[in-house]
Amino acid sequence: MESAVRPGPKEVSPPALSAGRHPLIIGLSSGVLALAADYLAHAFFGVPLLPQQAGDLLLRVLPLPVFENLLKALRVLARPLLLAGSSVIIVAAYGAAAVVIARVVPRFFVAALSTLAALVSAVVALLDFSPSDNPLLVLIELVILGGMVPLVDSTARQIAVDTEVADDRRVFLRNAFYGVVGIAVLGIGYANVRRLMTALAVNEGSRATAELTPVGDFYVVSKNLGGDPVVDGTTWRLQLPGRTLTYSDLLALPAQRLELTLECISNDVGGTLISNGLWQGPRVRDLLALTTVPSDAVWMLMESADGYTESFPLSELSDDHLLATHLNGAPLGPSHGFPARFIFPGHYGMKQPKWVTRIHFSSSDQPGYWENNGWDERAVVKTMSRIDQPVDGAALAAGSVSFRGIAFAGSRRISAVELSWDGGSSWHPAQLDTEFSPYAWRFWQLTSGLSGGQYRVAVRARDGEGRLQSATPAPTLPNGADGYHSITIDLA
Question: Which domains does the chain have, with CATH numbers?
């Protein structure tokens, strides 16, 4: 009689990586699903977005000349492409980390990968942390980015079970899992494509043809890789020391109108990152009268809904400094800072925050967002001039040629504009149109008889204090571009 053969104990796979579970797939899937959840949480709850934080840090460490060249080459696409690139790199980093950890510490694969994802995200969040960031939302971000690993690994374990009984369930889980990952990829792609399309749709600014720039043609520049905040006016609050104002409170304050040209510090020579508008809102001085300004306060510190920070010396405030609520007679749109933004004559746009949520004071300066990225603290507008007509490369008939354009010097105004078409050997005064406002661009025109040939026409301006704009070319970084704008025309 044959003796019964007892089966030996069933082999149990170690809790690290069982058969059928591929670390690269787990890592990439975890990265995709974690980022997709981060994008959703950012859109609906304001949770910080890791690709945006990483992109911000990259901008801080890039040498200024490199940043400037990238900005010139990519222009409005620079930030959307940085967001998309950061997203791809983060997903790839999840995959690479998973492969390395699977080889080095396979038994602690899940714990190690999850901890590493949360730890790296925490370092990035800490380095990019701003005073207006909510620590609780940052913590939620870390839970999302680190906690996705065990969820993905658990699903991978169930898919990898090798029994006939569980076959149908395994197939369902596998299809569902890859379906969710595919949807997540499409979601991330949609968010980035939408950002790219939005950037392409943004008009950098139009050539000046009228005194006021239509709101739809106004230039828009933003630091936000993941999209600008959309603020609800009914729930928005402006925090002042000891007092809070609603949007209705702000609109109830006496309002002042001010025509002012806004120029970006990134505006290159001859560029269109400059627009002129009619701003309306309460005076900053009236606003500060509603609260108590400490006796030792020297700086006014401002925070915005997107985490942007800026500072401004209290000694420079005048009756022409506004917290604007309207542009060209209509409430500010989302891209222009609804419900309120600062207007500070004489300074580039970086000193005039949008989506303002808080004002407080300090005895010492606290450099703002762009200052911490290497830009100039004062950001005072430089004297500029531009030829708008004719366009560069125009072919015209010899004889009477008309030139038109703009000049701007911030709060210093414009006193003269001159043109040269003989390499600077002689300069011809242009006629200045009537001044629109002490803080607005000024139109100029000049008509002259020119014979046939090719001409390189340059323009320069003097500010109201008699100082000529600099002829020495300088990049936009760190304090605005310098140099004469010029065009080439062919006359026959």
Answer: 23-201 (no CATH), 215-373 (3.90.420.10), 384-491 (2.60.40.650)
